[in-house]
Amino acid sequence: MALSFSSRLLFFFTTLMILLPLSSIAQPHSNVTLGSFLIADDTNSSWISPSGEFAFGFRRIAPDGGYLLAIWFDKIPDKTMVWSANRDSPSEEGSRIQLFPDGRFQLVNGPRLGNVIWNAAVAAGRVAYGAMLDTGNFVLALNTSAVAWQSFDHPTDTLLPTQILDQGNSLRSSYSETNSSTGKFDCTVGDDGKLVLRIRNFPVIPMDTNVFTYWSTRNTDPGNRLIFNQSGYIFLAASNGSMLEFLSNNGASTDRLYQRAILEYDGVFRHYVYPKSADSAGGRAMEWSFTENFSPRNMCMLLVGRSVQVACGLNSFCSVGSEGRPICSCPAGYSPMDSNIRMSGCKPDFVSQSCDRRSQESESFMFDEMLNTDFVGGDYTGYRSMDEDPCRRACLDDCFCAAVVYESRNCWKKRFPLANGRVSSGFNGKALIKIRKDNTTVVTSSSDSITNETSRSSLIIILSVLFGVSMFSFLVTSILLAFHLKGRRSKKIGSYSNLPGVYLRSFSFNELQEATNGFEEELGRGACSTVYKGILKDENDRVIAVKKLNKIAAEAEKEFEAEVSSISRTNHKNLVKLLGYCVEGQNRLLVYEFMTDGSLASFLFGKPRPSWYRRVQIALATARGLCYLHEECSTQIIHCDIKPQNILLDESLTAKISDFGLAKLLRTDQTKTITAVRGTRGYVAPEWYRNMPVTSKVDVYSFGILLLELVCCRKKVESRVEEESEVILVDWAYDCYEAGTLELLVENDEEAMDDIKRFKKFVMIGIWCIQEDPSLRPNMKRVLHMLEGALEVPNPPHPESFID
Fold first, then answer.
1. In 425-529, which residue ranges form alpha helices assigned H by DSSP?
2. Of 74, 157, 641, 773, which one is the catalytic site residue?
């Protein structure tokens, strides 16, 4: 980039004041003395810079969401964060950051201060004090005031004036607008001297080298670095100090404005300013103002590769809004996967088209037309010189076709899910998204429709005459029938519950006895119940599973109906759906949807061995179901008996948790094992034995055992006949993890070996879940985030490190 004489002169003066002071502390400060500490709690204690503009301390990221050790603008109402030490591992309440007397600077997690989750890489004995500076830089210094460690050398997603991004260092975007954990975009100065913006596959796997560059500067010179100077200019400079390329030349005085440059969650690098006083803003309300986005100018038009979604998720399309920000939207008939994360993609709100040739599903679908919209990639068939009507018909008649893109008589069929959707005025074609017309599943043929239309008028006349006669007969019959049936239950058709807010069928015992043919076909049996297969004749032969409970607490009906009411209000795709119940005499029965593929126990430990991909999906589905029970229900439900036998699979092998909430329905002695605790031996959390308060962490423990069984495809205890011994899976897993020999757990499983990084991560999560100390176990929301890759997994301690 050629620079004029005036530009070079500007560079000389604007950089002269910044390059020298970085090697030492050249401003007044309030020292953080050796032995000082801060505690993560609601007091919000912090170490403040001399001017009061910046603070260092703990920030609660959400109610019950943990704490970040962070630096923020302290005089701004929203306390905008600029740095954090543990963005992927929020600490618990009671955690402590301490500058120890020997100079160690460590963040220790939890009220028990059980493990170090972050520390500054400084040799013990060297540090004399710490200081929060007015630049927003937190430093650890020697007696000579030389810097031993500084936050400026370890940025997260933000640069501040006087900060330099050296070669080899990087900024990492946040996961979303509301989640500050590490996202999929990074900004770094590469070995060739270019400043590059890159995207990683997501969820992010530590040490994953599969990255794609979507924007870069033009200059190449090994040793380049990115400088944000005190005058508000951001530029790429060579190692010899010469300026190569301006990124933001909208300089402004740091005396009047707070400034920050941030790689945001949408992958765009932006420069923001904030007036320090209302007067400097011309009387406007003070807020962060967008100054300039560096590049790229249009995230929507970037297509790195078909395997990577750059701006928006699957089944969504991208358009450019203000500040160059990509706007992700869902087509008609689709809704966001996560309403809180707009880049999460979209899911269809209708049943997909049947591929059964006997059905006439094509007539149940229509197209939503989107002009100037393209979905790049994902086409599996293309036609040239085709009119639009035949193009539409080709997709309607193809059950695999989710959409077509039509341009200049060219027609491209797109498979599901739709990828890389974008709106561009430069594209003269259109996208036709196939959606269902209504809730019908099969429609009548065209000839039938014509016949029905012809006879409709005659039918209306006949029905009108019959209606008047039948209404009188109906009233008389109803009165007689009401007297006849008073005090009796229907023998054939069940009523619906009168429990508040619950639309749940109340069956008679005779109905369920008839549906199960006298409780003939047994599906499974437990200590407290037996499950039978049944068929509801009055519901088009719907197949059901009837659970007959053996014994119920003496308080019986009211307690039973109250708990059924609670369970019936749950609604999640990874929970087995409760359809109805029976309370009649001493009989207590529950009616569930029938799960065609049985239990996980049969699936996991049978032959052939399930695929690695399917085991991962089952682990994620089970975690989502448990997270819902613990976090999202109006009343928290603790399962108390998570095990493979209670995870059921539907026809698509989707995992669903069964028997949730039943612990409250049963007598205490009905869920006992030999050890007199609830649950099943081998999956039971140790606090049951220690007379400790039982919380949702008991389910986390059981899930940890289940997770290890899933990923290793081994039972929790395996007998080795030739060695006349038993192998305890959790002990073996931790020994292999500690020795770095995890491949021994899956030595004959090529699929798991090919994904050994994810396998190691899942094993580490399992070890965290089975910690004997309940306070060390993560909650299910955190477990789910770690499984999905939204949070990194720290090294777990030995599971038996708990001291009672």
1. 446-485, 509-515
2. 641
